[in-house]
């Protein structure tokens, strides 16, 4: 006799996304090589964290192998619990005021042309940890004056004063990711607000019209293409210059599942659309992440970088 599922089981099967086979065009290489090993040792010796490792970035092998990395500051524990992110969450420790020196020394030791600095959320502080961002920018300018700087900041709960602390140091790129479409914010990042992201990106341009602003979107969380294009239109209305679009990859079974994989043709379509509506640079491909090809972006687009370094 055939097994007939109960109604409860049918409902559960219909509401639980089925595992999807990863497309052949999404291939992640394990990090290896001498340069990777040297950078890993450098990070450990200076007690530094990288978002490459903490967030399980699929490009870690490629980026570290070429001598670049994205530094994760303000500790490795986030005050928010976004359902897509593999960074630990909970109650963080005290700020480490020696961190700017260690980060700047690492940037100098690596001879970076472009450093990306990002952080966990520090919602327990009114300034969101902005003074550490500022101190790192200043110290990198001193120890590695030929290095341009990109900061990938949290929303600071839309605090203009916190944002101004960072913007006063004039990073070449001010990056803040919206991550997803407004209809999915509460599902994907329940402690975030689309309006906070808007405030950060709009106010960054108001504080420094010459700064390059940047944002990113993940695909595959249940959004529609029309919703993605609507967010792209919002970002342009906020005068954002650079956009990154990538496929969401589930870090573990405890994280929000993948609703679907986008095709290479769809990524190409979104890149073409983004350039057509006025973005200066669009990276759109399955494994694109926030700092992918960041050095090329700043060298091609930053007036400040061009005036300082003649590139």
Could you list some keywords that capture this structure?
311 residues; alpha/beta; 8-stranded mixed β-sheet; globular
Helix and strand arrangement:
Layout: H1 7-15, H2 34-45, E1 49-50, H3 51-54, H4 60-65, E2 70-73, E3 77-78, E4 88-89, H5 99-110, E5 114-119, H6 130-143, E6 148-152, H7 160-167, E7 173-175, H8 185-188, H9 194-207, E8 212-219, H10 225-237, E9 242-247, H11 264-276, E10 281-284, H12 294-301, H13 303-309
What report would you give on this structure?
- It is a single chain.
- The chain has 311 residues and is α/β, with parallel strands linked by helices.
- The chain has a single domain, classed as Aldolase class I (TIM Barrel, Alpha-Beta Barrel).
- 40% of the residues lie in helices and 14% in strands.
- The strands form two sheets. An eight-stranded mixed β-sheet has the order 1-2-5-6-7-8-9-10, sandwiched between helices.
- α5 runs parallel beside α6 and α7 crosses α9.
- The longest helix has 14 residues.
- The relative contact order is 0.12.
- The N terminus is likely disordered.
């Amino acid at each position: 006799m055939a097994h007939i599922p109960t109604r409860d089981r049918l409902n559960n099967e219909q509401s639980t996304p089925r595992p999807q086979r990863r497309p052949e065009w999404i291939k992640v290489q394990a990090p290896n090589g001498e340069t990777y090993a040297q950078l890993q040792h450098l990070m450990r010796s200076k007690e530094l964290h990288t978002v490459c490792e903490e967030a399980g970035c699929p490009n870690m092998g490629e980026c570290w192998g070429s001598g670049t990395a994205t530094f994760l500051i303000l500790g490795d524990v986030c005050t928010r619990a976004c359902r897509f992110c593999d960074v630990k969450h909970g109650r963080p420790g005290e700020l480490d005021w020696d961190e700017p020196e260690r980060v700047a020394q690492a940037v100098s030791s690596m001879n970076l042309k472009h450093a990306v600095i990002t952080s966990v959320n520090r919602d327990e502080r009114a300034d969101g940890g902005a003074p550490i961002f500022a101190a790192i920018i200043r110290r990198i300018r001193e120890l590695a004056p030929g290095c341009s700087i990109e900061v990938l900041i949290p929303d600071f709960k839309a605090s203009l004063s916190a944002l101004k602390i960072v913007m006063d140091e004039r990073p070449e790129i001010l990056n803040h990711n919206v991550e997803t479409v407004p209809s999915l914010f509460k599902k994907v990042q329940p402690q975030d607000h689309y309006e906070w992201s808007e405030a950060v990106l709009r106010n960054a341009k108001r504080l420094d019209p010459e700064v390059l602003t940047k944002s990113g979107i993940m695909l595959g969380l249940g959004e529609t293409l029309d919703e993605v294009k609507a967010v792209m239109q919002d970002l342009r209305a906020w005068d954002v210059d650079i956009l990154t679009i990538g496929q969401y990859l589930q870090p573990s079974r405890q994280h929000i599942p993948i609703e679907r994989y986008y095709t290479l043709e769809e990524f190409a379509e979104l890149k073409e659309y983004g350039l057509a509506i006025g973005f200066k640079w669009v990276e759109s491909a399955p494994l694109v992440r926030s700092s992918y090809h960041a050095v090329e972006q700043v060298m091609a687009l930053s007036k400040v970088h061009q005036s300082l370094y003649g590139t």
